[in-house]
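Hi R.,

Here's the chain you asked about this morning:
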Amino acid sequence: MLVDVFYENVSKAKMEGTLSEIHERAENVVLEFRPSNGQLMLVACLWSRWSAPGEPDLLSFAAITDEPPEEVAAAGHDRCIVPIKEEHIDAWLNPDPKDVAALYAILNDRERPYYEHRLAA
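And here is the predicted structure, written out as tokens:
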């Protein structure tokens, strides 16, 4: 998936670094995160097709996330998308099913942009 920005719900208390008692219970805000270099990110995703007799197929996908870099954690979020390097696109999209370690290696050799954030409009 090509992404230039992503959005996350975060606790207002975590974002502000304040005690949750001063905010309404479970009050969230939406933050917009952008890589400071302005480049598109190639986000690693997984997809699946579920089928059952007499039911329409269900196609789904999810972006792979991992522990956040410091600036995302400091903004109050506990996960972050995994942008892969362009050189790994073919290997990611056409994996060797017998070499799962190669896929983990792609995820570990990821792009690591610095994410700027702001309140989403």
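One quick note: The mean pLDDT is 90.

Cheers,
M.
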